[in-house]
């Protein structure tokens, strides 16, 4: 958490910010952290997210009127979860360990998708027999859009559309994506434009999992995590002259004593290190930039 030292001769304002990373099912951890922060009565002025963090951020900021964002986010994750194995004792405990259930659930999702989030694309042969290439995309994210309709009303972010003027109590929403053709970041900010479900879907198209891109405003967009999995820089750019108290939920561990024993464990640990490096650099650069602004 970082904020500048205020000048006693100036009006002092601090924005409280929640930054949510991308990480697939690790977004459930962010749900738990947000629940704890809410129990302490912490209110946010800005909620920014990338990938699954963008989905969480959208539910937090754009939940339907009269609903509790904590309850809505928790219900979303409960609905997203799948039970593909018997969970009634003693069957699950006798035949399947936690590790076995995790592996089988991953294999099932990789093959069939998740009916609440992503589905197999229009059926094609697993291999192109002429070029021996896997087809792309493998998965379509339109099921996620239908699921989000149960929990999100984006009109609540707009005073013009919200007759109850509820926007005054809503945090500002920032989500990020990546333009496939230009390699440039594409930022959606509720203060400057109308965010809709397409904006959120544009942030979750992770190509390494075969998930499709999203077309919006003649741009073809992939997951925001490709450029910035921790959208702290985007928050600082959104209002650079206002000091901030930032709550950043880092879902990738810095330290792990156990060494990888297979390719999948090695891939996961390498991912942790890569994303941690980006997060640390974002934090350092944000602090340096803030200090320069103070000097000016």
Give structural notes:
- With 296 residues, this protein is α/β, with parallel strands linked by helices.
- The chain is 36% helix and 16% strand.
- The chain contains nine helices and ten strands.
- It has helices at 27-39, 52-62, 69-80, 91-95, 98-112, 142-148, 197-201, 232-238, 263-295, and strands at residues 14-20, 46-50, 113-114, 118-120, 139-140, 172-179, 185-189, 214-216, 219-223, 243-249.
- Strands 1, 2, 6, 7, 8, 9 and 10 form a seven-stranded mixed beta sheet that branches. A three-stranded antiparallel beta sheet has the order 3-4-5.
- The longest helix has 33 residues, at 263-295.
- The chain starts with 13 loop residues before the first strand and ends with a helix.
- Residues 1-10 have low confidence and may be disordered.
What is the C-alpha radius of gyration, as a whole number of Å? 20 Å
List the uncertain runs.
1-10
Could you give the distance between the termini?
A: 22 Å
Mean pLDDT: 82
**Total number of helices:** 9
Short description:
The chain is of the alpha/beta class and 296 residues long.
What would the keywords be for this entry?
alpha/beta; single chain; 296 residues
Topology, element by element:
Layout (H helix, E strand, L loop, with lengths): L13 E7 L6 H13 L6 E5 L1 H11 L6 H12 L10 H5 L2 H15 E2 L3 E3 L18 E2 L1 H7 L23 E8 L5 E5 L7 H5 L12 E3 L2 E5 L8 H7 L4 E7 L13 H33 L1
Parallel strand pairs: 1-2, 1-10, 2-6
Antiparallel strand pairs: 3-4, 4-5, 6-7, 6-9, 8-9
